[in-house]
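Objective 1b: paired records.
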Amino acid sequence: RMDRKEKCEELDTVEKTESMLIRLTYKPLESVDLLEQSVDPSCGAVSTFVGTTRDNFKGKKVEKLSYTAYVPMAMKQMRLICEEIIKKWGGEKGVKRVIIHHRLGVCPVTEASVMIAVASAHRKASLEAVHWAIDTLKEKVTIWKKEHYSDGSMWKENKEFDPEKLVSPKGADGSIDEY
């Protein structure tokens, strides 16, 4: 019989449309999966960003990271990032597909914690969009990181995170959104 934590760690939270795929998972992220999901026959460019766990921070030895999230709000923020990319760089600029995967739970040194891919007709739009996506993800998405050192651990705040830029909990009609 599995306990509650084990059950949670088996679950992937995924949302997929024709133009986007967002995923929060406790499983290791695979770049091959990301590339396969981002390919579009009308696109000549796929730009990617892969954020990995490094073994040091300000002179401290990092042994691993662990991530936690408020999943409903994180998924909503990630969806809005994808929608904004399609709005800003889609159409004539050519972005057709946006993929964002983020790892939850333990992420050992050298493993990926976040992967983003943007497919577009030409490279300029995809390169700009993937850069904007990682900066905006760090600024707006409710995912928290704990760094585990050889001599203890510490919750880390993304210096870019700004709670004022989160989605309002009120919908357009004034009602409270369900996360």
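Objective 1b, second protein:
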Amino acid sequence: RVHGDFTFMRSLLALAVLVAVASAHTCLFAPAQRGPMYDVNTVGTPDCGVFLSKDKPCGNTTSNNPTFAIWGGSDFDVIWMKNENHFDSGNEIGNWTIDFAFGFSDNPDSFYKLWTEADTNTPSLYIYQQSVTIPKAKMPTRSTLRVQYEVSFGTFVQCADIYVL
């Protein structure tokens, strides 16, 4: 009986760690991310935590009406925050990626990279800014811009719904 209780407690502990890990990591400010941003200056806020899953390229967020429009072919400064630092000098995987998809596709293969860079040991609550060129559209198109923070135990994402003119 003691072995069964130990196994159950160990399972509960593992679940608690997974919930804590998936709680917070990056917030997207420009363009504005999907979902709320009430407590972004608190390390570990749930508003900055969306975990990438294989079949949901924007995590558990749903697309909204675009809140921002930009001319295709123009440069745009994407601004985001590392809400919680997960830098690991022994891990070569850690990086940031900004990518883009025309439409609100649930197909991860529809996104393509605009920029990527290795993660560094910047502190929690660090603000990043990176200029990217928005792809040209043949006509005004609802699109998705995504920031990914890949760390040793998974990838965190924030998506923004935009119009490309």
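The chain has a mean pLDDT of 82. The first strand starts at residue 26 and ends at 30.
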